[in-house]
Design brief:
single chain; mainly alpha; MetI-like fold
């Protein structure tokens, strides 16, 4: 297991280097620059600013300086947030994004898994439950999260005044963005879990459990759920990384001071270091979560341990 983890960590190094390189190249080949949107600056002032941020140097030298800074753990200064480095911006905003992402992930996991199991069990016993669950799942997949967010704000904030429409100042402020963010993942999880659970229920070892007279709760939760969860684990890995790094649109709609909101602002302002820093953080989380998923496979499926 330790050898497997070390090997995967080593494979993560070229992945992160590729992400950093591709992001750097894209940022610098797109027409325009980070200070072109400013009001017309005198040539001398613009030259001094570009010299300060090494933008007047050849692209290869800029790239080498960028890689050297990454090796030191320095993501560089922000072009638009004067006096703040990208490390400072991420340190301030990442806890907010990870909090919202974890809440949305847990909510989608509980809702999606529960709905999928209930739908699979009720397929032959209560067809209306199965049909209703799948209709809700299709609706969750079909409705974009920004449309759902606007609808929730209209109903629960402006009409009934139950939850606040924006900001991040307490647990009540997390409800609407978490529901908006978790609706589509919960719908996908419900469909994946339903299909996987139905396949597991046809296995011979579950027929043996029925023949032995085991309680249904034991059959479903102890024997069926563990094996049916394998496809869900595969889907949950990248999903968790996406939710933890923050939903750009949801954070922007609800004025949440997370990485997503700053990323949108950075793209608009062409803040190269901030864009590359957030992208690199996302890549690191993807690598870490995929490693965690592979480790979970060893626990969920004994066949993998024997390979």
């Amino acid at each position: 297991m330790i050898q497997f983890i070390l090997k995967r960590l080593l494979w993560g190094i070229p992945v992160l280097w590729s992400v950093a390189t591709i992001t750097f190249v894209i940022m610098h080949i797109v027409p325009g620059g980070p200070f072109d949107a400013e009001k017309q600056l005198p040539p001398e002032i613009k030259a001094n600013i570009e010299q300060k941020y090494y933008l007047d140097r050849p692209i290869t030298e800029q790239y080498l300086l960028y890689l050297l800074s990454l090796l030191k753990g320095d993501l560089g200064p922000s072009y638009k947030y004067v006096g703040r480095s990208v490390n400072d911006v991420i340190a301030d905003t990442f806890p907010v994004s990870i909090g919202l992402g974890l809440i949305a992930f847990i909510l989608s996991l509980i809702t999606g898994t529960g709905t999928g199991i209930v739908s699979a069990i009720a397929r032959d016993r209560g067809i209306w439950v199965d049909r209703t669950s799948m209709v809700l799942a299709i609706a969750g997949v079909s409705i974009p999260n920004f449309v759902l967010a606007a609808l929730l704000i209209l109903i629960f904030s402006h009409t009934f005044h139950i939850f606040p429409p924006a900001l991040w100042e307490g647990w009540r402020y997390t409800i609407l963005p978490a529901v908006s963010l978790s609706a589509a993942p919960a719908a996908y999880m419900a469909r994946v879990m339903r299909t996987s659970f139905l396949d597991i229920l046809k296995e011979d070892y579950l027929r043996t459990c029925y023949a032995k007279g085991l309680p249904l709760r034991t059959i479903f939760l102890k024997h069926a759920l563990k094996n049916a969860a394998t496809p869900l684990v595969t889907f949950s890995g990248p999903l968790l990384a996406a939710l933890v790094t923050g939903s750009f649109i949801i954070e922007y709609i609800f004025s949440i001071p997370g990485m997503g909101r700053y990323f949108v602002t950075a793209v608009i302002n062409r803040d190269y270091p901030l864009i590359m820093g957030v992208t690199l953080v996302y890549a690191i989380i993807i690598v870490a979560v995929n490693l965690a998923v592979d480790v979970l496979y060893f626990w969920l499926d004994p066949r993998i341990r024997r390979r």
